[in-house]
Protein: VOC family protein
Amino acid sequence: MGIVGLDHVQLAMPRDGEADARAFYGAVLGFAEVPKPPDLAKRGGCWFAGDSVNIHLGVEEPFRPARKAHPALLVDDLAALRESLAGHGIDFSEGSPLDGYVRGDICDPFGNRIELMQKL
Structure:
């Protein structure tokens, strides 16, 4: 018996933030939206999936963005993603050196920190 993987990461969002979440996680980061089960959809929020990443956005009241706790997403071309992010007006902050990676941080539209990492 043991942990075999990670199903998803959940981040908080304010009520009625679904359009902003779709624009950022879907249009900017390229995740596909996944329908929430009907019972959970009543609560608001949205779910997104990538090749091996699932991110759930859930409504939290009162809302407070996660500035320290964060998902770290592996990317295959950080330079190209940075260029795309800049084209969308999204700031990228260089990360501290970490052996074997180049990395940095962005924030979603709600102020949640997201780390982007590329293996060297």
User: Anything to note?
Assistant: The domain at 9-119 is CATH 3.10.180.10 (2,3-Dihydroxybiphenyl 1,2-Dioxygenase; domain 1). The radius of gyration is 15 Å. The mean pLDDT is 96. Residues 71 and 114 are 6 Å apart (CA to CA).
